[in-house]
Design brief:
The chain is an alpha/beta fold. It folds into four domains: 88 residues, Elongation Factor Tu (Ef-tu), domain 3 (Beta Barrel); 120 residues, Rossmann fold (3-Layer(aba) Sandwich), CATH 3.40.50; 45 residues, no CATH class; 31 residues. Helices cover 30% and strands 31% of the residues. It is built from eight helices and 17 strands. Helix 5 packs parallel to helix 6. It is globular, with a radius of gyration of 19 Å.
Length: 288
């Protein structure tokens, strides 16, 4: 059992958890993840380690409640427990002094881009961060990203905050201004990562993405997280999760992620109906 020592919402449906896991905190590196299981009958889900604290022996994860399990996890509060936290898993980010490095986070992907931005800065890079969200209320880790950036930009799809446009628009603007960019890391929704890859491809800028396929065991045994890289099958849990963006088959990735959508929607519907029923019963009991 792993105790939650802090739990708070950063934005709507996006919640930060700090969890006691001293052995994972000691070994984890930027880019790695954990697989958690909330209870004995829960599914196993991968979540990137956003940060760690060696003194406290904790790891931080940031969760966007979109499906049944992530919404169930986001009901957890400080002082409660998670059954399983396994990790650190996956290959760490390859970090070196590239020169000028751009770290791009789309939505909750910012939580994954953040630790790598920290590591890039520590390696001596000139770090530019581009933090994207649909709207102002969904911007996360703004101050944390600024603290590790030589230049920091916020973009919103609706123009409610920062630069009005997509992260790719801002990246293209920097390139058009003559900014010499040596390395790009992009993490977020699949369409965003694909779009970043297409922006950097003509300029031959080394570009890395962190992939988010369906994952079960985290050891390469189940094959669920299979991705096509330069036409060759690899496994995100052991060969990744980070890969050369210009070699990723994004269509295959998107298609595989949609395979179980019907079942995911059914599970979420049942969970929400259960939550509504429990809330109704609670209200009736309180009214008595």
């Amino acid at each position: 059992m792993y105790k939650i020592v802090d739990a708070r919402f950063l934005a709507e449906n996006i919640k930060l958890f700090e969890i006691e896991a001293p052995r994972i905190a000691k070994k984890r590196k930027a880019g790695q993840f954990v697989i958690i299981r909330i209870h004995e009958h829960g599914e196993r889900i991968p979540l990137t380690i956003a940060d760690s604290d060696l003194e406290k022996g904790t790891v931080t994860i940031i969760v966007q409640g979109v499906g049944k399990t992530t919404k169930e996890l986001n009901l957890k509060e400080k002082g409660e427990y998670i059954l399983d936290v396994v990790g650190p898993l996956g290959q760490p980010s390859h970090i070196e002094n590239f020169g000028t490095a751009v770290s791009i986070g789309g939505g909750v992907g910012t939580a994954i881009a953040y630790p790598t931005a920290v590591a890039l800065k520590q390696a001596g890079n000139y770090v530019i961060t581009i933090n994207g969200a649909r709207t102002k209320d969904l911007v996360i880790l703004e101050e944390e990203m600024k603290a590790v950036s030589d230049e920091a930009y916020i973009t919103t799809d609706d123009g409610s905050y920062g630069y009005h446009g997509f992260v790719t628009d801002k990246l293209q603007e920097l390139i058009d201004q003559g900014k010499k960019i040596d390395f790009v890391l992009a993490i977020g929704p699949i369409p965003m990562m694909k779009a970043v890859a297409e922006v950097t491809r003509p300029y031959n800028i080394k570009t890395i993405v962190s992939l988010n396929p369906i994952m079960v065991d985290g050891t390469g045994m189940c094959g669920g997280c299979r991705v096509l890289i330069d036409g060759k099958a690899e496994f995100a849990c052991v060969d990744g999760p980070e890969f050369d963006a210009h070699k990723v088959d994004f269509k295959n990735l998107a298609d595989r992620n949609r395979m179980y959508r019907k079942f995911e929607e059914e599970a979420l519907k049942k969970f929400e109906e259960k939550c509504k029923l429990e809330e109704k019963i609670k209200s009736l009991q309180e009214a008595e």
